[in-house]
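Exercise: predict the structure of this protein bound to S-adenosylmethionine.
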Amino acid sequence: MNNFNTDVHTMIKSADGSYTAYSKEYDEHYHSTKDGALNESLYKHVYPAFKIKKDVKELNILDICFGLGFNTLATIYYLKQISSTCRVSIYSPELDKDLINSLKDFNFPKEFEDLKHIIFSLIENKKYCDESLHVELFLGDAREYVRKFSNFFDVVYQDAFSPSTNPILWTKEYFSDIKKASKDDAVITTYSTSLPTRLALYENGYNLYINSGEDFRSATVASLVKLDEFELVNMKHKISCNPDTKSLRD
Ligand SMILES: C[S@@+](CC[C@H](N)C(=O)[O-])C[C@H]1O[C@@H](n2cnc3c(N)ncnc32)[C@H](O)[C@@H]1O
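Solution:
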């Protein structure tokens, strides 16, 4: 019996061999078990973000929400892999303080082996700092947290539980707050390809792009500025084919 497992969370192996968790409260896994937890973080968030934000010297990332910390840790893993000299700051809200405390017992992938001191510092101090990296964990509501920032983020990893399970983190008003917190050339990455999610972004002025590849199910990239790296979603066509579909609202 692993100490991570409780009445509310159980650890489960995903397709790439990395472990994720199942939340009984939300009746949902923290990652796609089919894509794999580590794969999902890398292919749906880290790689597309850094494909666009390459050759930058500084980057502020908003990681919505910390959960098991895969997106934050996969970012740090990737930066080390490419011997990046970019100074990266990651800000991540998370409502579930018990989950954060239980991460000391989570079976993280071997790729995160060298990051144990960072995981430990985040659990103990809710932050980690060194010469090239700054990570802050905020224990509280993401909606409230996002409103503290203005014109600040370069990248947003939008990785809340699904729109049907946790709609408050997918509404038009929520993405309006994300837009205010972000720079004009910020990029948003998300696993959601649903039309209501894309509409909530589109109604805030975002261009929507398809992030697809052989190693994962398709995902979405959103940006206020035009991107050459990804295929544009024809939103006018999608809307005309689905006239009754609406974005989620607060
Ligand atoms: C899909 S999981 C995040 C997975 C995470 N990115 C990872 O790599 O492990 C969603 C997380 O959102 C948290 N959450 C739900 N509502 C929240 C809110 N309003 N503010 C902050 N965190 C929230 C849940 O506790 C859960 O840990």
